[in-house]
Amino acid sequence: MAVADNLEQARSALRMIAEAPFNAEAPPEALRGEITPTELHFVRSNFAVPAHDGTLEVGGAVENPATLTLDDLRAMPVVELAVTLECAGNGRLAMRPLPVGEPWGDYAVSTARWKGALLHEVLERARPAADGVEVRFEGADHGSYHLKPVIPETDQSDLTFVRSLALSHAIDPAAEILIAYEMNGEPLSPDHGAPFRLIVPHWFAVASVKWLRHIDVLTEPHVGEFQTGHYIYEWPDRPHEPVALMRVRARITDPAPGTTIPAGTYTVRGKAWSGTGPVTQVDVSLTGEGDWHPAELEPPNGPYHWQDWSFDWEATTAGRSSLRARATDAAGNVQPEVPPWNRLGYGNNAVEVIYVDVR
Q1: What integer pLDDT is reported at residue 114 of this predicted model?
Q2: What is the CATH number of the domain that holds 282?
Q3: Is the pTM of the predicted complex or chain greater than 0.85?
């Protein structure tokens, strides 16, 4: 079967947001499971799936530059992590006025098992220079970008996707940043960054660079369209901030919006996640008037894995009912009632409301 046919088949179960480059949300039912099947995992790409020569260059301000292959990475100690990734633009459609950018609904979030080598071990072998400050990650994907460049003299006709992290974070063993080559027990698919990609736990998915081909230690902070240009919070009333850690958020997965449920005890279920600390509390409101009731949190499945929660609802009143879910994390962050508007539409973690009918 041709590559194009394989891609079309792999994409068929997703909710397409854009055809070229391909961007798609997970179907709502995908949030009910612990691990999102690869074919249901959301896809976010700024450019088309690129060709890749199968090598990863490690260089910049290092003592031991190297060219790594997939076999080289597989020869290193193997680590597998279940990691929840969320697109920074998830929920953009709910913001008013509608920001620029891809029209994401609420399902650009998924959890997969990623296997690979730890970034800090690759960097330790390369021996970063003492004056290194950041690590630059370049993907093989490139092309014309649909948003106006923010950085002067940028060639919009052929941009390459590049991100960076602080060197202190990249070399921290506790950060467990992966150079992944497997997803859910299989080699990475083209849409998910084959042959290898970065996985940065706790951060919005933009940091997890796909189709990784260059890792460079820098002695000055990286300035680029996808770092200091477009993936920033352009607040209307305060200084701009970079898009970084995922914001605390809860989603209701059962019942589905608009469904009819029988009167009686009904177990409301959902997921919650945060990049700024473990989820410590989820509350459910039945009226939208401040009647918050604590939900039960299931035992955590891992430090980077979304949190299951449930709430037994006595649905005794027939008719239309609203349900809201609100998460709190260990850092004290609580979901807001109103989307935090910014020009590019990032980080919408406002409290979700769904409506169901009780019969």
Answers
A1: 99
A2: 2.60.40.650
A3: yes
The CATH number covering residue 92 comes to 3.90.420.10
In a shared domain, residues 300 and 227: no
Structure tokens at 195: 């042959």
CA distances from 162 to 33, 214, 224, 274, 287 (A): 32, 9, 7, 24, 45
Residue pLDDT, tens place only, 322-342: 999 999 999 999 999 998 899
Tokens representing 286? 């039945």
pLDDT at 157: 73
Q: Are residues 290 and 352 in the same domain?
A: yes
Number of domains observed in the structure of the chain: 2
Domain edge (last residue) among 207, 242, 277: 242
The string of pLDDT tens digits covering residues 167-197 is: 999 999 999 999 999 999 999 999 999 999 9
Examine the domain organization and report whether 176 and 282 are in the same domain. Answer: no
| Mean pLDDT confidence for 223-228 | 93
From residue 50, give the alpha-carbon distance in Å to each of 63, 179, 307, 352: 30, 18, 34, 36
Could you list the residue range(s) of the whole structural domain that residue 226 is in? 3-242
Dig out the tokens for 125 from the structure: 């072998």
Rounded to the nearest integer, the mean pLDDT of the chain is 95
> H or E stretch including 26?
none
For residue 5, the model assigns a pLDDT of: 56
User: Tokens standing for 174?
Assistant: 């506790």
Write the CA distances from 236 to 46, 149, 233, integer angstroms.
Answer: 25, 19, 9
Q: Do both 262 and 325 map to the same domain?
A: yes
Do 207 and 267 fall within a single domain? no
Residue 217, number of CB atoms within 10 A of its CB: 25
Question: Could you tell me if residue 57 is left (phi over 0), alpha (psi between -120 and 50 degrees) or otherwise beta?
Answer: beta
Q: 195 preceded by cis ω (within 30°)? A: yes
Residue (of 23, 13, 90) closest to 273 by Cα position: 90
| Strand bridging mode 352-358 / 260-261 | parallel
Average pLDDT over residues 71-91: 99
Of the candidates 322, 293, 289, which has an alpha carbon nearest to the alpha carbon of residue 310?
293
